[in-house]
Amino acid sequence: xxxxxxxxxxxxxxxxxxxxxxxxxxxxxxxxxxxxxxxxxxxxxxxxxxxxxxxxxxxxxxxxxxxxxxxxxxxxxxxxxxxxxxxxxxxxxxxxxxxxxxxxxxxxxxxxxxxxxxxxxxxxxxx
Length: 127
What we know:
The protein is mainly beta and 127 residues long. It has one domain (23-126). The chain has one helix spanning 2-20; strands at 24-33, 39-46, 50-54, 60-64, 75-80, 86-92, 99-107, 110-114. The strands form two sheets. A four-stranded mixed sheet has the order 2-1-7-8, with no helix packed on it. A four-stranded antiparallel sheet has the order 3-4-5-6, with no helix packed on it. A hairpin with a 5-residue loop joins strand 5 (75-80) and strand 6. The N and C termini lie far apart (67 Å).
């Protein structure tokens, strides 16, 4: 009687482990620099992958899912300056995360991270 119980337990545990990791993470939001035109993004990044969005001013937004080389343990969003300096890194430790909304506002060198993203896009003049 123990063998069927153990087999069912193993099937349940493996199902729960696979259900906890989504196939992809959807990242939505925008990056605005000095009240310029915001760069909006709405992308799905497959599990274990990462992408880079190059912004109009040459800075970059890096988005990664758990298992990626950039962020093996959590989903991550990182804003990187033109010179390659990380301006801000946000990690989402929930391995079951299916989506994240975020905005970055860069006002004269000062970075503001907002998550979840507000309904109205932020502006430097509102600070």
